[in-house]
Design a protein that fits this description.
heterodimer, A: alpha+beta, six-stranded antiparallel sheet, five-stranded mixed sheet, 16 helices, 13 strands, globular, B: alpha+beta, 46% helix, 18% strand, Chl4/mis15/CENP-N (chain A), Centromere protein Chl4/mis15/CENP-N (chain A)
């Protein structure tokens, strides 16, 4: 530790130690489950990390007999201890104590803290709410050359990006940046840990004050591979109610970070900005599907059958076999007539049973047409909230684009019209209201209806309702199938305005 | 509650090893049945589209047709030969399918008409589907689809409704150039106009981008192969004397328009390739910060395919 601390604009170093007794450290580690804590400790002892995350090893001379966790003599011995712990049983508390008071008694450095935090993020996919933003090129008016114009994705070079981002951070806060590759998804996750201190030495971290080191000031930015989107998670829900930190603070930091991201992407004569895509979810897998680099971005709902690869090779033009009819090919109207005719024939005593079976089958087929291969309850790609505002004129007699009543009753999710609330959802309302500008209002009765569908997998739930016959699968509007790919939208004439599915 | 029986059977499997074994057997038999079925279908398709069976069928049809011809009034009640014999129907379908396949792999852009399942869809659900078949490294990959509809007040103007084109293909830019909408946009059949939509040009440009992307990817793979980058060190033990000079060649961005070349002595090169495959620019910088002009010239002098050969000339 240097004796002199000078305010500086550079970032915090990964090697900066935080004392093991610091509440943030203890909190971060105790959040983890025992198996992930042990694998984390073994990661710290791994060859690749050992230079940064070296444990406390025993010296030859002094050995304290009173030491509860006698330090190991070599790395291999320590690895053995943790592998043994992994095989055996015990409480989480023991492991945390062993890590903090034994093997890393001198402190946990920022890199280790970041690793622990990332581990928690991977263990609890739903712990962060991610908002997908599109990186859009700022048009300068003057037409560029063709080659640059045809570039759809700004190039992302992590080191350059970080260097640029560091430039945008204010000098009175210090941040620690850690980039990590998601274990399963094609994502690069940047963790920004902000410390309110002008110093980048250990002085900034030794303070026991909880406001300077606060899990509230951890921001995550995820960069999906080969895609013009970023996912940001800037408002963590971990904020304890009685924390002395003001809301405004986090808000301004959030704003600065967002602006910084766009600026860090930019280069001279190539400026970018971030644009909302009306999509946010807790599930990263769902986001990668809807706003990723693959084929599924603009092919949701029933269209997903075109995006998925056919295993049997029926997509291949060299395949001579006649395609077997998939659930999407039979015409709905025809099958409906057939069904009716068959029902008429079946008017016997045992009418009910076969009719029900046919009906169930038919509903399943309709659900298959509307939802395609997605929105299955076990695919793990669920978004947990869908907010829809309907601004269509109120139907006088027949309304094809209004929800069937049973669903509304069932979900009980019909929100009252907004009353300028200043609550948590104010940003949502702001976005919705922006969409409502330039509406040519006529004399019709146009109630504004907000609907919030929430659950662990909204579209799978709707699919199940269609299969169960609660929702009429044929009259159901398209936005209920998730094919528009938004989690927040304004519906006009039965269709989501603005984003329009393809995003073009 | 449909899921419950499924979970209970799987639990049953865990408990009972014999049941699990039987299940395995059933699964293997079923996969056998599936493979046999596909084989049968393939054979049937081959037979029915073969030349001799076609001629046999046409002879059969001719022999059945004359009696039905004079009685035109009865023809509406009796079935036409296509319907009376399933062979005719299948043969017709197969011919159509073969023709479609022929268009797909020769023309590579095919169009079809589908209906939007959304009851509120514009233009009563009429959607034009475009299928672009692309072959990459000797195989046809999953085709790319674009769906267009007509949501605008001018009923002739098209718009991209849905698509399965990945982000690294600049679809939005192509659409804004060739399928403009908004003020002043006119449909394709208009003879002139600043903002005339042109579907043909749009699809051609799009296909060009897609094919160029796949070509770049396969060229990068070829470069790796010719520089023997993907071979394990154990297999290439024989040529011990020839150490690898270039240790890595890879695409540096999503569109694969930039290449990253890495030398064993720490030199790193970047080169930019244009849409036609010509190397436009190249920078090679060593660890000492000095540029390697000779190799830069070698990389820049030609097309992307020749990079490896041109570099090799300098090395060996």
């Amino acid at each position: 530790m240097s004796s002199l601390s000078i305010p500086t604009t550079s970032a915090l170093l990964s090697l900066q130690l935080i004392p093991s007794s610091h509440p943030t450290v203890i909190k971060t580690l105790t959040r983890l489950s025992r198996p992930s804590l042990l694998s984390l400790a073994l990661d710290w002892l791994d060859e690749r990390n050992i230079e940064i995350t070296a444990p406390y090893l025993a010296d030859e001379e002094e050995e304290d007999p009173n030491d509860l966790y006698p330090p190991a003599h070599s790395l291999d011995a320590l690895r053995g201890i943790y592998s043994e712990l992994q095989a055996g049983k015990g409480t989480k508390r023991d492991v945390v104590d062993r890590v903090l008071e034994g093997d890393w008694r001198e402190g946990i450095n920022l890199y280790q803290l970041a690793m622990a935090d990332m581990q928690y993020l991977y263990d609890h996919q739903a712990s962060q709410k991610w908002t997908a933003l599109r990186i859009v090129r700022l048009s300068s008016g003057a037409d560029d050359t063709e080659s640059t114009k045809l570039k759809s994705i700004p190039r992302f070079h992590p080191a350059t990006f970080l260097r640029n981002l560091k430039r945008e951070v204010l000098p009175d806060v210090k941040a620690h940046y850690n980039l990590d590759r998601h274990p399963t998804l094609p994502l690069l996750i940047l963790r920004i840990f902000i410390v309110e201190s002008p110093y980048n030495t250990s002085l900034a971290l030794t303070s026991q004050n909880e406001t300077t080191l606060d899990s509230n000031k951890v921001f995550y930015v995820a960069f999906p591979d080969e895609s013009p989107f970023v996912y940001v998670s800037l408002n963590t829900s971990l904020a304890a109610p009685n924390q002395p930190i003001s809301r405004l603070d986090t808000k301004s930091l959030r704003k600065l970070t967002l602006e910084g991201i766009a600026k860090a992407f930019s280069r001279p004569r190539e400026r970018y900005k971030l644009e909302s895509t009306h999509m946010s979810a807790r599930n990263l897998t769902a986001l990668v599907e809807r706003r990723g680099g693959g084929r599924t971005n603009a092919a949701g709902g029933g269209w997903s059958i075109y995006a998925s690869e056919k295993d049997d090779g029926s997509d291949n033009p060299l395949n001579m076999q006649l395609p077997t009819p998939t659930p999407s090919t039979p015409d709905k109207d025809d099958s409906g007539q057939n069904l009716d005719e068959e029902n008429k024939e079946n008017r016997g005593l045992k009418r009910r049973q076969p009719e029900n079976e046919r009906l169930v089958k038919r509903r399943k087929m309709v659900a298959g047409i509307r939802f395609g291969n997605i929105a299955k309850a076990d695919d793990g790609k669920g978004i947990e909230q869908l907010t829809i505002r309907i601004i269509d004129p109120f139907p006088s007699s027949s309304g094809a684009h209004v929800l069937p009543d049973p669903l509304a009753d069932e979900l009980g999710a019909l929100d009252p019209p907004p009353k300028k609330s200043k609550g948590r959802r104010s940003t949502i309302h702001l976005e919705l209201e922006q969409d409502m500008v330039d509406d040519g209002e006529e004399d019709e009765f146009r109630p504004t209806i907000d609907m919030v569908f929430s659950g662990s997998h909204v579209f799978a739930g709707i699919r199940e309702l269609v299969e169960a016959g609660v929702v009429d699968g044929e009259r159901m509007p398209g936005w209920m199938t998730g094919e528009e790919g938004v989690s927040l939208g304004v519906v006009r004439q039965g269709r989501v305005r603005g984003w329009k599915g393809s995003g073009l | 509650m449909r899921p419950s029986p499924v979970t209970s059977t799987s639990k049953f499997d865990v408990d009972n090893p014999i049941a699990a074994q039987l299940d395995d057997e059933i699964a293997s038999l079923q996969s056998q049945i599936a493979s046999l079925k596909t084989r049968r279908k393939l054979q049937a398709a081959t037979i029915i589209s073969s030349h001799s069976s076609k001629s046999t069928l046409s002879r059969l049809r001719n022999s059945t047709q004359p009696p039905s011809n004079p009685a035109t009034s009865v023809a509406s009640q009796t079935l036409s030969p296509e319907e009376s014999n399933p062979l005719f129907a299948t043969s017709k379908l197969q011919t159509l399918h073969n023709q479609q396949n022929l268009y797909r792999f020769c023309g590579t852009i095919t169009a079809f008409h589908i209906r939007d399942p959304d009851p509120n869809a514009v233009d009563s659900g009429n959607v034009l589907g475009l299928r672009i078949d692309v072959a990459a490294s000797g195989k046809f990959i999953t085709p790319y689809y674009i769906f267009l509809n007509k949501p605008f007040p001018d009923p002739q103007l098209l718009r991209v409704h849905r698509h399965t084109v990945p982000s690294y293909i600049p679809l939005a830019q192509l659409a804004s150039r060739h399928l403009p909408h908004g003020k002043g946009a006119v449909a394709m059949n208009a003879l002139k106009g600043e903002k005339r939509q042109d579907l043909t040009r749009f699809v051609r440009a799009l296909r060009r981008e897609i094919v160029a992307y796949h070509n770049r990817i396969s060229v990068i793979n070829c470069l790796r192969k010719s520089l023997q980058l993907d071979e394990n060190s154990s297999t290439s033990r024989k040529g011990k004397g020839r150490e690898r000079v270039i240790v890595d060649v890879s695409a540096a961005d999503a569109e694969a328009k930039q290449l990253r070349i890495e030398w064993h002595d720490g030199r790193i090169g970047r080169c930019a390739v244009d849409g036609r495959g010509e190397v436009r620019k190249c920078v090679i910088i060593g660890e000492d910060g000095l540029r390697d002009r000779d190799n830069e010239r070698a990389v820049e002098g030609g097309r992307i395919e020749g990079i490896a050969d041109r570099l090799k000339e300098g090395i060996y």
